[in-house]
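Forwarding the complex inputs:
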Amino acid sequence: MSGRAPRRTGRGFVAPALIWTLAFFMVPFAVMAAMSLATLDGRSLVWGLSADNYARILTTPYLRRAIAVSLEITAIVTVISVVLAYPLAWIIAFRVPERWQRLALVLAVLPFWTSYVVRSYSWLLVLAREGVVNQALIASGLIAEPLTLANTRTATVTGFVHFFVMLLTLTIYANLVQLSPNYRRAATDLGASAFQTFRHVILPLTLPGVVTGAFLTFVLCIGDYVTPQILGGNNELTVPQVIMVQLGRRADFPLASALSVVLMGIVTLAYLGSARWLRLDRL
Amino acid sequence: MSNRRLALLGTTLLATALPGLAAAEGTLNALVWCDHTDPALIEPFEAAHGVKVNLREYEGTGAALAILEQSRPGDWDVLVIDGIDVFRAVEAGLLAPLPADQLALGDQFPEVVMAANNQQGGVTYAVTEKFGYNTISFNAAKVDPADMQDLNTVWSEKYKGRIAIYDYYLPVMGLAAIASGIRTETLGEADLAAIAPTLALMRANAATVGEVVSSQTALATGEVDIVVGGGEWLTAVLAGEQPELTWTIPDQGAVRWAQSIGVLEASENKDLAVEFVKYITGPEGQARLATSSCFWGMPANARAGDHLSAEQKTILRWDEQAGYLARTELYPAPDADLDARMQDLWLETLQQ
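Prediction (whole assembly, two chains):
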Protein backbone atom coordinates (compact mmCIF):
# COMPACT_ATOMS: atom_id res chain seq x y z
CA MET A 1 0.00 0.00 0.00
CA SER A 2 1.36 3.41 -0.88
CA GLY A 3 1.68 6.15 1.78
CA ARG A 4 -1.04 8.23 0.14
CA ALA A 5 -3.96 5.95 0.98
CA PRO A 6 -3.42 5.97 4.78
CA ARG A 7 -2.95 9.74 4.65
CA ARG A 8 -6.25 10.07 2.79
CA THR A 9 -7.93 7.75 5.30
CA GLY A 10 -6.47 9.77 8.17
CA ARG A 11 -7.77 13.01 6.68
CA GLY A 12 -11.16 11.36 6.21
CA PHE A 13 -11.35 10.48 9.90
CA VAL A 14 -10.24 13.94 10.99
CA ALA A 15 -12.46 15.82 8.54
CA PRO A 16 -15.76 15.68 10.52
CA ALA A 17 -14.10 17.04 13.67
CA LEU A 18 -12.29 19.65 11.62
CA ILE A 19 -15.45 20.78 9.83
CA TRP A 20 -17.33 20.84 13.13
CA THR A 21 -14.64 22.98 14.80
CA LEU A 22 -14.41 25.25 11.78
CA ALA A 23 -18.17 25.75 11.46
CA PHE A 24 -19.11 26.02 15.12
CA PHE A 25 -16.02 27.55 16.69
CA MET A 26 -13.56 29.14 14.29
CA VAL A 27 -16.07 30.92 12.04
CA PRO A 28 -18.25 32.27 14.90
CA PHE A 29 -15.13 33.32 16.78
CA ALA A 30 -13.79 35.12 13.71
CA VAL A 31 -17.12 36.95 13.32
CA MET A 32 -17.05 37.88 17.00
CA ALA A 33 -13.44 39.10 16.75
CA ALA A 34 -14.35 41.18 13.69
CA MET A 35 -17.40 42.56 15.52
CA SER A 36 -15.18 43.58 18.46
CA LEU A 37 -13.35 45.93 16.08
CA ALA A 38 -16.59 47.57 14.91
CA THR A 39 -18.20 50.56 16.64
CA LEU A 40 -21.65 52.00 17.23
CA ASP A 41 -22.52 55.33 15.64
CA GLY A 42 -25.65 56.24 17.53
CA ARG A 43 -27.50 52.96 17.20
CA SER A 44 -25.95 52.01 13.85
CA LEU A 45 -23.21 49.44 13.55
CA VAL A 46 -20.07 50.65 11.77
CA TRP A 47 -17.71 47.92 10.63
CA GLY A 48 -14.02 48.80 10.79
CA LEU A 49 -10.74 48.10 12.54
CA SER A 50 -11.15 50.22 15.65
CA ALA A 51 -9.55 49.38 18.98
CA ASP A 52 -12.02 51.68 20.78
CA ASN A 53 -13.84 48.86 22.53
CA TYR A 54 -10.62 47.41 23.94
CA ALA A 55 -9.52 50.89 25.02
CA ARG A 56 -12.87 51.29 26.77
CA ILE A 57 -12.36 48.02 28.63
CA LEU A 58 -8.94 49.16 29.80
CA THR A 59 -10.01 52.64 30.85
CA THR A 60 -13.55 52.15 32.21
CA PRO A 61 -13.49 51.37 35.94
CA TYR A 62 -16.71 49.29 36.01
CA LEU A 63 -15.50 47.11 33.12
CA ARG A 64 -12.08 46.55 34.73
CA ARG A 65 -13.84 45.78 37.99
CA ALA A 66 -16.02 43.18 36.22
CA ILE A 67 -12.89 41.37 35.03
CA ALA A 68 -11.42 41.49 38.54
CA VAL A 69 -14.67 40.22 40.10
CA SER A 70 -14.86 37.36 37.60
CA LEU A 71 -11.25 36.34 38.30
CA GLU A 72 -11.69 36.56 42.07
CA ILE A 73 -14.88 34.49 42.14
CA THR A 74 -13.46 31.93 39.73
CA ALA A 75 -10.25 31.56 41.76
CA ILE A 76 -12.16 31.15 45.04
CA VAL A 77 -14.58 28.62 43.53
CA THR A 78 -11.79 26.60 41.91
CA VAL A 79 -9.71 26.38 45.09
CA ILE A 80 -12.65 25.49 47.37
CA SER A 81 -13.96 22.94 44.88
CA VAL A 82 -10.56 21.21 44.61
CA VAL A 83 -10.12 21.16 48.39
CA LEU A 84 -13.57 19.58 48.87
CA ALA A 85 -13.54 17.28 45.85
CA TYR A 86 -10.19 15.60 46.46
CA PRO A 87 -11.09 13.95 49.79
CA LEU A 88 -14.53 13.08 48.42
CA ALA A 89 -13.01 11.37 45.38
CA TRP A 90 -10.48 9.65 47.65
CA ILE A 91 -13.21 8.29 49.90
CA ILE A 92 -15.20 7.00 46.93
CA ALA A 93 -12.11 5.44 45.31
CA PHE A 94 -10.45 3.86 48.36
CA ARG A 95 -12.89 3.77 51.26
CA VAL A 96 -16.23 2.94 49.67
CA PRO A 97 -16.56 -0.81 48.88
CA GLU A 98 -16.31 -1.44 45.15
CA ARG A 99 -19.92 -2.56 44.84
CA TRP A 100 -21.14 0.75 46.30
CA GLN A 101 -18.85 2.96 44.24
CA ARG A 102 -21.24 3.11 41.30
CA LEU A 103 -24.05 4.30 43.58
CA ALA A 104 -21.70 6.84 45.19
CA LEU A 105 -20.82 8.22 41.75
CA VAL A 106 -24.49 8.42 40.77
CA LEU A 107 -25.13 10.39 43.97
CA ALA A 108 -22.17 12.59 43.10
CA VAL A 109 -23.61 13.54 39.73
CA LEU A 110 -27.20 13.99 40.95
CA PRO A 111 -26.94 17.81 40.92
CA PHE A 112 -26.29 17.62 37.16
CA TRP A 113 -29.75 16.13 36.67
CA THR A 114 -31.64 19.21 37.78
CA SER A 115 -32.09 22.43 35.82
CA TYR A 116 -29.30 24.91 36.40
CA VAL A 117 -31.76 27.78 36.86
CA VAL A 118 -33.99 25.83 39.25
CA ARG A 119 -30.94 24.79 41.27
CA SER A 120 -29.82 28.42 41.58
CA TYR A 121 -33.27 29.61 42.68
CA SER A 122 -33.39 26.73 45.19
CA TRP A 123 -30.16 28.02 46.74
CA LEU A 124 -31.70 31.48 46.89
CA LEU A 125 -34.59 30.10 48.94
CA VAL A 126 -32.25 28.09 51.18
CA LEU A 127 -30.05 31.12 51.90
CA ALA A 128 -32.87 33.68 52.25
CA ARG A 129 -33.43 35.59 55.50
CA GLU A 130 -36.33 33.28 56.24
CA GLY A 131 -34.68 30.28 54.56
CA VAL A 132 -33.63 26.94 56.00
CA VAL A 133 -30.10 27.97 56.99
CA ASN A 134 -31.11 31.10 58.89
CA GLN A 135 -34.07 29.37 60.54
CA ALA A 136 -31.85 26.51 61.70
CA LEU A 137 -29.21 28.89 63.08
CA ILE A 138 -31.84 30.95 64.91
CA ALA A 139 -33.57 27.83 66.28
CA SER A 140 -30.26 26.49 67.58
CA GLY A 141 -29.61 29.79 69.38
CA LEU A 142 -26.39 30.50 67.47
CA ILE A 143 -27.72 33.78 66.09
CA ALA A 144 -30.54 36.11 67.10
CA GLU A 145 -31.03 37.94 63.80
CA PRO A 146 -30.93 36.33 60.35
CA LEU A 147 -27.65 36.62 58.47
CA THR A 148 -27.51 38.16 55.00
CA LEU A 149 -26.54 35.13 52.95
CA ALA A 150 -28.58 35.43 49.74
CA ASN A 151 -27.64 38.03 47.11
CA THR A 152 -24.00 38.03 48.15
CA ARG A 153 -20.72 36.76 46.77
CA THR A 154 -20.94 33.96 49.34
CA ALA A 155 -24.21 32.84 47.75
CA THR A 156 -22.67 32.90 44.26
CA VAL A 157 -19.65 30.89 45.44
CA THR A 158 -21.91 28.40 47.25
CA GLY A 159 -24.01 27.81 44.12
CA PHE A 160 -20.90 27.34 42.00
CA VAL A 161 -19.11 25.08 44.49
CA HIS A 162 -22.16 22.82 44.81
CA PHE A 163 -21.95 22.18 41.07
CA PHE A 164 -18.21 22.07 40.51
CA VAL A 165 -17.31 19.83 43.45
CA MET A 166 -19.22 17.10 41.63
CA LEU A 167 -17.39 17.76 38.36
CA LEU A 168 -14.00 17.73 40.07
CA THR A 169 -14.86 14.64 42.07
CA LEU A 170 -15.40 12.77 38.83
CA THR A 171 -12.13 13.88 37.21
CA ILE A 172 -10.08 13.21 40.34
CA TYR A 173 -11.82 9.87 40.94
CA ALA A 174 -11.03 8.81 37.35
CA ASN A 175 -7.37 9.55 38.07
CA LEU A 176 -7.27 7.82 41.45
CA VAL A 177 -8.77 4.53 40.27
CA GLN A 178 -6.24 4.34 37.43
CA LEU A 179 -3.43 4.48 39.96
CA SER A 180 -1.88 1.09 40.61
CA PRO A 181 -1.99 0.11 44.34
CA ASN A 182 1.67 -0.98 43.89
CA TYR A 183 2.79 2.68 44.12
CA ARG A 184 1.38 3.01 47.61
CA ARG A 185 2.70 -0.42 48.63
CA ALA A 186 6.18 0.41 47.36
CA ALA A 187 6.22 3.74 49.20
CA THR A 188 5.11 2.07 52.41
CA ASP A 189 7.74 -0.70 52.00
CA LEU A 190 10.37 2.00 51.65
CA GLY A 191 9.31 3.51 54.96
CA ALA A 192 7.16 6.43 53.83
CA SER A 193 4.44 7.59 56.18
CA ALA A 194 0.86 7.91 54.90
CA PHE A 195 1.30 11.67 54.51
CA GLN A 196 4.67 11.27 52.74
CA THR A 197 3.14 8.71 50.39
CA PHE A 198 0.34 11.12 49.57
CA ARG A 199 2.62 14.16 49.25
CA HIS A 200 5.38 12.58 47.17
CA VAL A 201 3.61 9.76 45.29
CA ILE A 202 -0.18 10.04 45.05
CA LEU A 203 -0.56 13.80 44.65
CA PRO A 204 1.97 14.19 41.81
CA LEU A 205 0.46 11.22 39.98
CA THR A 206 -3.10 12.53 40.34
CA LEU A 207 -2.18 16.12 39.52
CA PRO A 208 -3.29 15.77 35.87
CA GLY A 209 -6.82 14.86 37.04
CA VAL A 210 -6.86 17.74 39.53
CA VAL A 211 -5.59 20.27 36.99
CA THR A 212 -7.96 19.01 34.29
CA GLY A 213 -10.94 19.36 36.64
CA ALA A 214 -9.71 22.72 37.91
CA PHE A 215 -9.30 23.98 34.34
CA LEU A 216 -12.82 22.88 33.41
CA THR A 217 -14.11 24.55 36.58
CA PHE A 218 -12.25 27.74 35.66
CA VAL A 219 -13.63 27.80 32.11
CA LEU A 220 -17.23 27.05 33.07
CA CYS A 221 -17.21 29.36 36.09
CA ILE A 222 -15.71 32.45 34.48
CA GLY A 223 -18.15 32.26 31.57
CA ASP A 224 -21.26 31.61 33.65
CA TYR A 225 -24.09 34.14 33.69
CA VAL A 226 -26.92 32.37 35.51
CA THR A 227 -25.41 31.74 38.95
CA PRO A 228 -24.06 35.23 39.69
CA GLN A 229 -27.18 36.79 38.19
CA ILE A 230 -29.57 34.82 40.41
CA LEU A 231 -27.51 34.39 43.57
CA GLY A 232 -25.28 37.47 43.56
CA GLY A 233 -28.12 39.99 43.58
CA ASN A 234 -26.16 42.23 41.18
CA ASN A 235 -24.14 43.45 44.13
CA GLU A 236 -21.10 43.06 41.93
CA LEU A 237 -21.07 42.33 38.24
CA THR A 238 -19.07 39.66 36.44
CA VAL A 239 -17.99 39.89 32.79
CA PRO A 240 -20.87 37.72 31.44
CA GLN A 241 -23.38 39.92 33.29
CA VAL A 242 -21.88 43.07 31.79
CA ILE A 243 -21.98 41.43 28.34
CA MET A 244 -25.68 40.68 28.76
CA VAL A 245 -26.41 44.29 29.73
CA GLN A 246 -24.71 45.49 26.53
CA LEU A 247 -26.92 43.20 24.45
CA GLY A 248 -30.27 43.67 26.18
CA ARG A 249 -31.44 47.16 25.32
CA ARG A 250 -28.71 48.99 23.44
CA ALA A 251 -27.54 46.05 21.28
CA ASP A 252 -23.91 47.13 21.68
CA PHE A 253 -22.59 44.02 19.99
CA PRO A 254 -19.10 45.51 19.39
CA LEU A 255 -18.40 46.08 23.11
CA ALA A 256 -20.04 42.77 24.06
CA SER A 257 -17.81 41.02 21.49
CA ALA A 258 -14.67 42.74 22.78
CA LEU A 259 -15.53 41.62 26.31
CA SER A 260 -16.06 38.09 25.01
CA VAL A 261 -12.67 38.14 23.28
CA VAL A 262 -11.07 39.29 26.54
CA LEU A 263 -12.81 36.42 28.32
CA MET A 264 -11.48 34.05 25.67
CA GLY A 265 -7.99 35.50 26.19
CA ILE A 266 -8.19 34.85 29.93
CA VAL A 267 -9.27 31.23 29.31
CA THR A 268 -6.40 30.80 26.83
CA LEU A 269 -3.92 32.07 29.43
CA ALA A 270 -5.38 29.64 31.96
CA TYR A 271 -4.94 26.85 29.44
CA LEU A 272 -1.34 27.79 28.73
CA GLY A 273 -0.65 27.97 32.44
CA SER A 274 -2.03 24.51 33.09
CA ALA A 275 -1.21 22.82 29.77
CA ARG A 276 1.76 21.00 31.26
CA TRP A 277 -0.53 18.97 33.51
CA LEU A 278 -3.68 18.85 31.40
CA ARG A 279 -4.61 15.28 30.51
CA LEU A 280 -8.10 15.30 29.03
CA ASP A 281 -7.67 11.61 28.10
CA ARG A 282 -7.78 10.82 31.82
CA LEU A 283 -11.42 11.91 32.05
CA MET B 1 -36.78 5.03 -4.60
CA SER B 2 -38.10 6.96 -7.58
CA ASN B 3 -36.86 10.46 -8.36
CA ARG B 4 -40.32 11.80 -7.59
CA ARG B 5 -40.40 10.21 -4.13
CA LEU B 6 -36.86 11.39 -3.52
CA ALA B 7 -37.84 14.95 -4.42
CA LEU B 8 -40.89 14.75 -2.16
CA LEU B 9 -38.78 13.46 0.73
CA GLY B 10 -36.21 16.18 0.13
CA THR B 11 -38.84 18.91 0.08
CA THR B 12 -40.42 17.56 3.26
CA LEU B 13 -37.10 17.43 5.07
CA LEU B 14 -36.21 20.93 3.91
CA ALA B 15 -39.57 22.29 4.98
CA THR B 16 -39.19 20.65 8.40
CA ALA B 17 -35.69 21.99 8.87
CA LEU B 18 -36.51 25.52 7.78
CA PRO B 19 -39.63 26.79 9.58
CA GLY B 20 -39.69 29.93 7.49
CA LEU B 21 -40.20 27.91 4.34
CA ALA B 22 -42.81 25.81 6.06
CA ALA B 23 -44.77 28.87 7.22
CA ALA B 24 -48.26 28.02 6.22
CA GLU B 25 -51.07 30.42 5.39
CA GLY B 26 -52.58 29.72 8.80
CA THR B 27 -49.51 30.44 10.88
CA LEU B 28 -48.63 33.66 12.63
CA ASN B 29 -45.16 34.28 14.07
CA ALA B 30 -44.95 36.84 16.82
CA LEU B 31 -41.99 38.26 18.73
CA VAL B 32 -43.44 39.10 22.12
CA TRP B 33 -43.07 39.80 25.82
CA CYS B 34 -43.82 36.93 28.18
CA ASP B 35 -47.39 38.07 28.94
CA HIS B 36 -48.43 37.04 25.41
CA THR B 37 -47.42 33.42 25.98
CA ASP B 38 -50.41 32.74 28.24
CA PRO B 39 -52.58 30.12 26.44
CA ALA B 40 -55.69 31.83 27.85
CA LEU B 41 -54.80 34.82 25.69
CA ILE B 42 -53.68 33.06 22.51
CA GLU B 43 -56.00 30.06 22.22
CA PRO B 44 -59.23 32.04 21.63
CA PHE B 45 -57.58 33.80 18.67
CA GLU B 46 -56.26 30.51 17.28
CA ALA B 47 -59.71 28.92 17.59
CA ALA B 48 -61.54 31.88 16.06
CA HIS B 49 -59.24 32.07 13.03
CA GLY B 50 -58.25 28.41 12.70
CA VAL B 51 -54.56 29.31 12.85
CA LYS B 52 -51.51 28.53 14.90
CA VAL B 53 -49.68 31.40 16.63
CA ASN B 54 -45.96 30.78 17.16
CA LEU B 55 -44.57 32.96 19.91
CA ARG B 56 -41.01 33.82 20.76
CA GLU B 57 -40.32 35.68 23.95
CA TYR B 58 -37.52 38.23 24.25
CA GLU B 59 -36.19 40.75 26.75
CA GLY B 60 -34.79 44.11 25.71
CA THR B 61 -35.46 46.04 22.52
CA GLY B 62 -31.85 45.55 21.41
CA ALA B 63 -32.32 41.79 21.57
CA ALA B 64 -35.55 41.99 19.53
CA LEU B 65 -33.96 44.14 16.83
CA ALA B 66 -31.01 41.73 16.67
CA ILE B 67 -33.37 38.77 16.24
CA LEU B 68 -35.19 40.57 13.43
CA GLU B 69 -31.93 41.53 11.76
CA GLN B 70 -30.74 37.94 11.80
CA SER B 71 -34.07 36.56 10.52
CA ARG B 72 -35.13 36.32 6.93
CA PRO B 73 -37.80 38.73 5.67
CA GLY B 74 -41.18 37.21 6.37
CA ASP B 75 -40.06 35.11 9.32
CA TRP B 76 -41.96 37.36 11.74
CA ASP B 77 -45.40 38.92 11.47
CA VAL B 78 -46.03 40.72 14.76
CA LEU B 79 -43.79 42.63 17.15
CA VAL B 80 -44.51 43.64 20.74
CA ILE B 81 -42.17 46.43 21.76
CA ASP B 82 -41.53 48.90 24.56
CA GLY B 83 -43.68 51.96 23.82
CA ILE B 84 -40.71 54.34 23.99
CA ASP B 85 -38.82 52.28 21.39
CA VAL B 86 -41.42 52.16 18.61
CA PHE B 87 -39.48 54.90 16.80
CA ARG B 88 -36.38 52.66 16.69
CA ALA B 89 -38.32 49.96 14.85
CA VAL B 90 -39.90 52.55 12.53
CA GLU B 91 -36.51 54.15 11.78
CA ALA B 92 -35.16 50.70 10.92
CA GLY B 93 -38.05 50.25 8.50
CA LEU B 94 -39.33 47.25 10.40
CA LEU B 95 -42.93 48.24 11.09
CA ALA B 96 -45.76 48.46 8.59
CA PRO B 97 -48.46 51.16 8.67
CA LEU B 98 -51.58 50.01 10.54
CA PRO B 99 -55.17 50.73 9.45
CA ALA B 100 -55.89 53.19 12.28
CA ASP B 101 -59.59 53.36 11.38
CA GLN B 102 -59.96 49.65 12.18
CA LEU B 103 -58.32 49.92 15.60
CA ALA B 104 -60.15 50.90 18.76
CA LEU B 105 -57.91 53.89 19.51
CA GLY B 106 -60.92 55.94 20.60
CA ASP B 107 -61.58 53.47 23.41
CA GLN B 108 -58.11 53.83 24.88
CA PHE B 109 -57.27 55.85 27.98
CA PRO B 110 -56.22 59.15 26.32
CA GLU B 111 -52.89 59.30 28.23
CA VAL B 112 -51.70 55.99 26.78
CA VAL B 113 -52.59 56.48 23.12
CA MET B 114 -49.10 57.95 22.90
CA ALA B 115 -49.42 59.26 19.37
CA ALA B 116 -45.95 60.83 19.59
CA ASN B 117 -44.51 57.37 20.10
CA ASN B 118 -46.78 55.13 18.03
CA GLN B 119 -47.26 57.40 15.03
CA GLN B 120 -44.86 59.11 12.67
CA GLY B 121 -45.83 61.59 9.98
CA GLY B 122 -49.48 60.95 10.72
CA VAL B 123 -49.08 57.21 10.09
CA THR B 124 -49.88 54.73 12.87
CA TYR B 125 -47.16 52.08 13.19
CA ALA B 126 -48.05 50.61 16.57
CA VAL B 127 -50.79 50.61 19.19
CA THR B 128 -50.40 50.74 22.96
CA GLU B 129 -51.68 47.47 24.37
CA LYS B 130 -50.81 47.54 28.06
CA PHE B 131 -49.39 49.91 30.62
CA GLY B 132 -48.53 50.15 34.27
CA TYR B 133 -46.23 51.79 36.74
CA ASN B 134 -42.64 51.48 37.89
CA THR B 135 -43.14 52.70 41.40
CA ILE B 136 -42.87 51.26 44.91
CA SER B 137 -44.01 47.73 45.80
CA PHE B 138 -43.87 46.81 49.46
CA ASN B 139 -44.94 44.44 52.21
CA ALA B 140 -47.59 46.36 54.15
CA ALA B 141 -47.13 44.08 57.16
CA LYS B 142 -43.43 44.93 57.44
CA VAL B 143 -43.12 48.63 56.58
CA ASP B 144 -45.08 51.73 57.41
CA PRO B 145 -47.27 52.46 54.36
CA ALA B 146 -47.06 56.19 55.15
CA ASP B 147 -43.28 56.03 54.60
CA MET B 148 -43.86 54.65 51.10
CA GLN B 149 -45.46 57.92 50.05
CA ASP B 150 -42.09 59.66 50.07
CA LEU B 151 -39.45 58.39 47.66
CA ASN B 152 -36.59 59.80 49.74
CA THR B 153 -37.78 57.87 52.81
CA VAL B 154 -38.17 54.67 50.79
CA TRP B 155 -34.47 54.45 49.98
CA SER B 156 -33.25 56.10 53.17
CA GLU B 157 -31.11 54.55 55.91
CA LYS B 158 -34.34 53.54 57.70
CA TYR B 159 -34.87 50.71 55.23
CA LYS B 160 -31.25 49.80 54.62
CA GLY B 161 -30.90 46.17 53.59
CA ARG B 162 -34.65 45.78 53.12
CA ILE B 163 -34.85 47.15 49.59
CA ALA B 164 -34.61 45.47 46.21
CA ILE B 165 -34.14 47.55 43.07
CA TYR B 166 -35.67 46.48 39.78
CA ASP B 167 -32.77 45.93 37.39
CA TYR B 168 -33.77 48.21 34.52
CA TYR B 169 -32.01 51.52 34.42
CA LEU B 170 -34.62 53.61 32.58
CA PRO B 171 -37.46 53.42 35.11
CA VAL B 172 -35.20 53.47 38.15
CA MET B 173 -33.37 56.53 36.86
CA GLY B 174 -36.77 58.00 36.07
CA LEU B 175 -37.76 57.57 39.73
CA ALA B 176 -34.47 59.09 40.87
CA ALA B 177 -35.14 62.04 38.53
CA ILE B 178 -38.67 62.51 39.85
CA ALA B 179 -37.35 62.45 43.43
CA SER B 180 -34.88 65.16 42.41
CA GLY B 181 -37.62 67.28 40.85
CA ILE B 182 -36.56 66.56 37.26
CA ARG B 183 -39.22 65.62 34.73
CA THR B 184 -38.44 62.37 32.90
CA GLU B 185 -39.25 63.85 29.50
CA THR B 186 -36.64 66.58 29.96
CA LEU B 187 -33.99 64.33 31.51
CA GLY B 188 -30.71 65.06 29.73
CA GLU B 189 -27.02 64.30 30.09
CA ALA B 190 -26.52 67.33 32.35
CA ASP B 191 -29.07 65.88 34.80
CA LEU B 192 -27.20 62.61 35.26
CA ALA B 193 -24.75 64.20 37.68
CA ALA B 194 -27.74 65.40 39.73
CA ILE B 195 -29.35 61.97 40.02
CA ALA B 196 -26.10 60.02 40.51
CA PRO B 197 -25.99 60.62 44.31
CA THR B 198 -29.62 59.44 44.60
CA LEU B 199 -28.78 56.27 42.67
CA ALA B 200 -25.70 55.71 44.84
CA LEU B 201 -27.78 56.10 48.02
CA MET B 202 -30.43 53.76 46.65
CA ARG B 203 -27.73 51.22 45.78
CA ALA B 204 -25.98 51.51 49.13
CA ASN B 205 -29.18 50.77 51.03
CA ALA B 206 -30.40 47.98 48.74
CA ALA B 207 -29.94 44.31 49.48
CA THR B 208 -30.28 43.27 45.86
CA VAL B 209 -30.80 44.51 42.33
CA GLY B 210 -32.76 41.98 40.32
CA GLU B 211 -34.88 41.34 37.27
CA VAL B 212 -38.59 40.50 37.48
CA VAL B 213 -38.45 37.00 38.99
CA SER B 214 -35.61 37.82 41.40
CA SER B 215 -37.36 40.96 42.67
CA GLN B 216 -40.64 39.08 43.01
CA THR B 217 -38.93 36.20 44.84
CA ALA B 218 -37.10 38.60 47.15
CA LEU B 219 -40.36 40.32 48.14
CA ALA B 220 -42.39 37.13 48.41
CA THR B 221 -39.83 35.29 50.56
CA GLY B 222 -39.25 38.21 52.92
CA GLU B 223 -35.68 38.76 51.75
CA VAL B 224 -36.67 42.39 51.21
CA ASP B 225 -39.73 44.42 52.15
CA ILE B 226 -39.62 47.03 49.36
CA VAL B 227 -39.02 46.88 45.61
CA VAL B 228 -38.02 50.18 44.02
CA GLY B 229 -39.29 50.15 40.43
CA GLY B 230 -41.99 47.59 41.26
CA GLY B 231 -45.71 48.05 40.74
CA GLU B 232 -48.87 46.14 39.95
CA TRP B 233 -46.94 43.97 37.46
CA LEU B 234 -44.83 42.67 40.34
CA THR B 235 -47.39 42.12 43.09
CA ALA B 236 -50.68 41.42 41.30
CA VAL B 237 -49.92 37.74 40.59
CA LEU B 238 -49.06 37.30 44.29
CA ALA B 239 -52.16 39.09 45.57
CA GLY B 240 -54.19 35.91 46.10
CA GLU B 241 -51.71 34.27 48.46
CA GLN B 242 -50.01 37.31 49.95
CA PRO B 243 -52.44 40.23 50.08
CA GLU B 244 -49.98 42.16 52.27
CA LEU B 245 -47.80 42.66 49.20
CA THR B 246 -49.03 45.84 47.62
CA TRP B 247 -47.88 48.98 45.82
CA THR B 248 -48.39 52.69 45.87
CA ILE B 249 -47.56 55.82 43.91
CA PRO B 250 -45.61 58.20 46.15
CA ASP B 251 -46.52 61.84 46.55
CA GLN B 252 -43.73 62.97 44.20
CA GLY B 253 -45.18 60.71 41.49
CA ALA B 254 -43.79 57.68 39.68
CA VAL B 255 -42.88 56.33 36.28
CA ARG B 256 -45.27 54.83 33.74
CA TRP B 257 -44.38 52.03 31.33
CA ALA B 258 -46.26 51.07 28.20
CA GLN B 259 -45.90 48.35 25.63
CA SER B 260 -47.02 48.59 22.01
CA ILE B 261 -47.85 46.10 19.30
CA GLY B 262 -47.31 46.41 15.55
CA VAL B 263 -47.13 44.45 12.31
CA LEU B 264 -43.80 43.86 10.63
CA GLU B 265 -43.28 45.38 7.19
CA ALA B 266 -41.74 42.16 5.86
CA SER B 267 -44.67 39.99 7.00
CA GLU B 268 -46.23 37.87 4.29
CA ASN B 269 -49.27 37.45 6.47
CA LYS B 270 -50.24 41.05 7.10
CA ASP B 271 -54.02 40.56 7.09
CA LEU B 272 -53.82 37.90 9.77
CA ALA B 273 -51.27 39.98 11.68
CA VAL B 274 -53.63 42.98 11.67
CA GLU B 275 -56.44 40.70 12.90
CA PHE B 276 -54.14 39.65 15.76
CA VAL B 277 -53.41 43.28 16.64
CA LYS B 278 -57.16 44.02 16.57
CA TYR B 279 -57.83 41.04 18.85
CA ILE B 280 -55.10 41.99 21.33
CA THR B 281 -56.21 45.63 21.46
CA GLY B 282 -59.91 44.78 21.53
CA PRO B 283 -61.83 44.62 24.83
CA GLU B 284 -61.71 40.82 25.33
CA GLY B 285 -58.09 40.40 24.29
CA GLN B 286 -57.17 43.35 26.46
CA ALA B 287 -58.81 41.85 29.54
CA ARG B 288 -56.92 38.57 28.97
CA LEU B 289 -53.62 40.36 28.34
CA ALA B 290 -54.10 42.50 31.44
CA THR B 291 -54.42 39.42 33.64
CA SER B 292 -51.84 37.24 31.90
CA SER B 293 -50.23 34.59 34.08
CA CYS B 294 -46.78 36.10 33.40
CA PHE B 295 -47.55 39.58 34.68
CA TRP B 296 -50.55 41.81 35.12
CA GLY B 297 -50.88 45.37 33.90
CA MET B 298 -53.56 47.85 32.95
CA PRO B 299 -55.23 47.34 29.56
CA ALA B 300 -54.86 50.34 27.27
CA ASN B 301 -58.47 49.90 26.12
CA ALA B 302 -60.87 51.28 28.74
CA ARG B 303 -63.67 48.99 27.49
CA ALA B 304 -61.69 45.97 28.72
CA GLY B 305 -63.26 46.76 32.08
CA ASP B 306 -66.48 45.11 30.85
CA HIS B 307 -64.60 41.79 30.70
CA LEU B 308 -62.75 41.99 34.00
CA SER B 309 -64.21 40.70 37.27
CA ALA B 310 -64.68 43.03 40.22
CA GLU B 311 -61.81 41.27 41.98
CA GLN B 312 -59.49 41.70 39.00
CA LYS B 313 -60.37 45.38 38.78
CA THR B 314 -59.65 45.81 42.48
CA ILE B 315 -56.21 44.25 42.07
CA LEU B 316 -55.54 46.48 39.06
CA ARG B 317 -56.95 49.50 40.96
CA TRP B 318 -59.19 50.24 38.01
CA ASP B 319 -61.08 53.06 39.68
CA GLU B 320 -57.93 54.92 40.69
CA GLN B 321 -56.38 55.09 37.23
CA ALA B 322 -57.38 58.66 36.51
CA GLY B 323 -55.37 59.87 39.52
CA TYR B 324 -52.46 57.55 38.81
CA LEU B 325 -52.22 58.63 35.18
CA ALA B 326 -52.19 62.26 36.24
CA ARG B 327 -49.38 61.69 38.75
CA THR B 328 -47.06 59.59 36.62
CA GLU B 329 -44.68 60.32 33.76
CA LEU B 330 -43.62 58.04 30.95
CA TYR B 331 -40.18 56.69 31.72
CA PRO B 332 -37.22 58.36 29.98
CA ALA B 333 -36.90 57.78 26.25
CA PRO B 334 -33.24 58.63 25.63
CA ASP B 335 -31.55 59.01 22.26
CA ALA B 336 -28.62 56.70 21.52
CA ASP B 337 -25.94 58.85 23.16
CA LEU B 338 -27.91 59.61 26.31
CA ASP B 339 -28.91 55.93 26.49
CA ALA B 340 -25.22 54.96 26.48
CA ARG B 341 -24.42 57.49 29.25
CA MET B 342 -27.38 56.28 31.33
CA GLN B 343 -26.34 52.65 30.97
CA ASP B 344 -22.77 53.52 31.94
CA LEU B 345 -24.00 55.38 35.02
CA TRP B 346 -26.20 52.42 35.94
CA LEU B 347 -23.34 49.94 35.68
CA GLU B 348 -21.01 52.25 37.60
CA THR B 349 -23.65 52.45 40.32
CA LEU B 350 -24.04 48.68 40.47
CA GLN B 351 -20.27 48.15 40.71
CA GLN B 352 -19.87 50.62 43.60
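Confidence is low (pLDDT under 50) at residues 1-23 of chain B.
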